[in-house]
Amino acid sequence: MFEGLAWGALEEKQGWWYLVTEFVDFSSLSTPPSSTPQTLARKLAQLHTTPAPIPPGHTKPMFGFPVPTCCGSTVQENSFEESWAVFFATSRLGAIGRLARKREGGGGGGKGGNGDSLEDLIQRTAEKAVPRLLGPDTCTGMVPVVVHGDLWSGNMAVGRVVGREAEAEGGGGGGGGGGGGDVHPTGLIYDPSSVYAHHEYEHGIMRLFGGFDSPARFSWDEYFALCPKTSPEAEYDDRKKKKKKKKKKEEDKMLLPPLLKKDIL
């Protein structure tokens, strides 16, 4: 990964902010990642097995985030919740329904083929499918961790962090976040929409557009060896379908009904 070096508000232009990061050389995009121990799968597994920090005012890690974040141009609601099922139902699915209603002028996001509005489908999914698939009576050991939040293939590349050669020669650092571990071309991710979430939240969009299915780029076997699927593993595919992010309302309507047709209701 690469690090932020400086950030803050612009004095010359009110309401504008700046961010300065390490420089990443993407000139070798076709070069396979180096076969060092710090592969992208290993880095992501390390991120997904590190508990999120305890937010101020709480006594344990919580699902959510201290501030709103953005996925593209869509603002993500991030209030803190103790339950992942509650957070996902209210701050992700529910937020989609509220946004659809706002864009349709209070109409609930239009009608699907069976007459249900998008908002109706989301509400039924949140009330029935989410507790069944993600509730504490079904999934055990859910711990809030930091996730990228928008990890599709366009936010992943192979590159080299410029300037780390001197650190590596001097024996300074290694591993995922900094130091000499990224001297050679390696898998890098960027443009996050981070949140403290269940780690499987990441998997839906990773598999949605492809790019993470090539073993040369990302090894799911290596990842799961370090960050196992949540129990019950047999329902992993159903959980993953729920977490795929769709950018169009029509696609949302196609996604939600199959979940409702299962024996969840």
Overview of the molecule:
This protein has eight helices and nine strands. A three-stranded antiparallel β-sheet has the order 3-7-8, with no helix packed on it. Helix 3 crosses helix 8 and helix 5 crosses helix 7. It is an alpha+beta fold and 265 residues long.
- How confident is the prediction overall: mean pLDDT? 78
Strand arrangement within the widest β-sheet reads 3-7-8
Number of strands: 9
Largest sheet properties: 3 strands, antiparallel
Unreliable runs:
172-181, 245-265
User: Helices and strands: which structural class?
Assistant: alpha+beta
Secondary structure: helix percent: 25-40%
* Global Rg: 20 Å
For the record, give the distance between the C-alpha atoms at the N and C termini, rounded to a whole number: 42 Å
Which term fits the overall shape? globular
Give me the strand/helix succession: EEEHEEHHEEHEEHHHH
Helical run tally: 8
Strand content: 5-15%
